[in-house]
């Protein structure tokens, strides 16, 4: 019988990676409504993917009304971009209970994925995870948007766990995780603390230490939950 770690790994198609990257830039505010995007050729060069992958991603995001394609003029962020319909259509992330539920779900899922990743990660996985952690650390120190390498790290950990079912579960929450970054990145000291945790998690996976990777991921999420709770308590206190 072939074990889970020996089964061929299902990796995202290149155009899906482009979709995730472009969505992250729109959600983070890096690309504003009405802003013109780089050309297909420039995006292909920047992201290291083929022209066909970029065109397919743009076509899909256009159908989802996130992008507006104008012949002869270029590609623009829609004036009122919205996320496509999906599993969480009727859930408002900004509702306090929903954000708490999201972190509760992540606390159940992600430490286990980190432990599996430490056991099963390939050399390629380790390189991608470590590079994402390093890029996030640089962007956080420069007080710039780090959502792209942040999401890449979490996605690659899920892929490195090499459990197709759990990878699909993680994919279902990634859009909400991306949106939650818009909140957590604004918390005092959170960018620096998160980037430090990510570096430690990347090192534990590189060293194939599942217990440490699991404990660090849980501590990372607990740290974010505690900070969100602290900010919420302060917000509710009457001003003097």
TrEMBL record:
GO molecular function: DNA binding; DNA-binding transcription factor activity
Superkingdom of the organism of origin: Bacteria
Keywords per UniProt: DNA-binding, Transcription, Transcription regulation
HTH gntR-type domain segment(s): 12-80
CDD domains: WHTH_GntR (cd07377)
Transmembrane parts of this sequence: none
Any Pfam family matching the protein: GntR
Protein name listed in UniProt: FadR family transcriptional regulator
Record organism: Ktedonosporobacter rubrisoli
InterPro entries: GntR_C (IPR011711), TF_FadR/GntR_C (IPR008920), Tscrpt_reg_HTH_GntR (IPR000524), WH-like_DNA-bd_sf (IPR036388), WH_DNA-bd_sf (IPR036390)
């Amino acid at each position: 019988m072939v074990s889970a770690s020996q089964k061929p790994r299902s990796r995202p198609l290149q155009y899906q990676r482009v979709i995730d990257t472009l969505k992250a830039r729109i959600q983070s505010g890096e690309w504003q409504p009405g802003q013109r995007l780089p050309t297909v050729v420039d995006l292909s060069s920047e992201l290291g993917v083929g022209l066909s992958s970029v065109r397919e991603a743009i076509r899909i995001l256009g159908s989802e009304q996130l992008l507006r394609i104008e012949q002869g003029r270029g590609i623009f962020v829609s004036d009122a971009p919205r996320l496509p319909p999906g599993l969480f259509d009727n859930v408002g992330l900004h509702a306090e209970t929903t954000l708490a539920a999201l972190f509760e779900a992540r606390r159940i899922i992600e430490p286990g994925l980190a432990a599996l990743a430490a056991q099963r990660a390939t050399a390629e996985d380790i390189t991608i995870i470590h590079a994402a952690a390093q890029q996030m650390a640089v962007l956080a120190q420069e007080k710039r948007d780090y959502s792209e390498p942040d999401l890449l790290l979490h996605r690659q950990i899920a892929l490195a766990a090499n459990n197709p079912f759990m990878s699909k579960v993680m994919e279902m929450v990634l859009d909400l995780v991306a949106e939650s970054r818009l909140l957590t990145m604004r918390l005092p000291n959170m960018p620096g603390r998160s980037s430090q945790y990510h570096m430690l998690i990347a090192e534990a996976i590189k060293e194939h230490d599942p217990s440490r990777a699991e404990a660090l991921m849980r501590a990372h999420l607990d740290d974010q939950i505690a900070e969100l709770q602290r900010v919420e308590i302060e917000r509710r206190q009457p001003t003097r």
